[in-house]
Amino acid sequence: MEKDMLSGGSGFPERLKRRTMLKLGAGLITTFTLGGTEVWRLAHSPQTAHAAAAATPSIISCATWGARPPDVPVKVLNISAKEILIHHTVFPNTTNYTLAQAYKLARQIQNFHMDSNDWIDTGQQFTVSRGGYILEGRHKSLAALQSGKQVVEGTHCPAMNQESIGIENEGTYTAATPPETQLAALVDLCAYICVQYGLQANSIFGHMDFHSTECPGRRFYALLPALRRRVAQRLGSGASMAERNWPELRLKTSGIGVQVVQRLLNNKGYAVGVSGTFESATDAAIRRFQSSNQLPVNGHVTNQTWEKLVTSLHTGSAGAPVSALQSLLNRNGYGVGITGTFSAATASAVRQLQLLHQLPASGSVDINTWCAATGGSVRSSLL
User: Fold this and answer.
1) Residue 202 and residue 382 in contact, taking contact as beta carbons nearer than 8 Å
2) Contact 362, 377 (CB under 8 A)
3) Which numeric CATH code is attached to 40-45+52-241?
4) Which residues contact 268 (CB under 8 A, 6 or more apart)?
5) d(C-alpha 103, C-alpha 94), whole Å
6) Relative to the CA of 181, which of 112, 188, 269, 325 has its CA 20 to 30 Å away?
7) Which residues contact 161 (CB under 8 A, 6 or more apart)?
8) Per-residue pLDDT tens digits for 218-251
9) Where are the domains of the chain?
């Protein structure tokens, strides 16, 4: 398992004693067989998108898969989730798609997190096996999700543990892609999370959007635009969706996205080091930038702040913004050198990114392309 996988913060775990797999809510049930095991799944049709989205997928409770009790009670927060974060386990890509393997997976993750990482319980709230089984990860996460008004504090991504729902996906997806059975179950789970917390599909992000890690793997990360579209179709309406939704970076976040913010700040005349760590100097520079641009001063790089920081780019552009863009393209798997010069190779990579996100493939970088490059999503590409 990736060493910094689900690199976490603090949390406080607890025991859940129910002994049954929960199959809640209304919806048509279909069955098929994988590896000799009967799999139950909620079936959805375009004509009943809203009803389907509201139906609860089968989620296997901690007690059912045999979880150890957490070291201390988990912390249950009386708030709504703001994001869904996608992870991969960095375990082998097994072809054992059985229920028994899903139980084994959940126990392996918990043992690793508690015994090797010294965490109080499983780090993430939910897990999806390669066989398409959805399991509760951290204790009480299922009950909190069902309430739609609570979040169990996790240990899966610094700065995000108190507001996001972390979903581990069995497998390693740096060079391979998840099986469709796993992706279909992930769509079911994400749609239900969105319904419960009043989120839209543009609230789905990858672990690497907020932390210095390769998780969920470049191949899986490239599937996130399609995942969001599938969830948006399931939800059936995006009228209230923001035109663009960017990853919200702030203190304790890290990675290429933070480097991009730092390069863009330098371009605007706010000198900060390009460390990839959102520390106090970056926070102070963002606050000064926000104040100068009549934005809410909170140190968070939100939609409004991103859209003041970025600038249009095209072939022939040069400087810190081009380096920032190239670092994002490289992170996203396009293999672009960070030269600071907008070359033909950079334009080609931009067109590939635009096609992936169903944006006009111009090769030039407008505000929508910037949003997609950072890990955000554009409403028009989801509807």
Assistant:
1) yes
2) no
3) 3.40.80.10
4) 289, 309
5) 14
6) 112
7) 8, 9, 10, 11, 153, 154, 155
8) 999 999 999 999 999 999 977 789 999 999 999 9
9) 40-45+52-241, 253-381
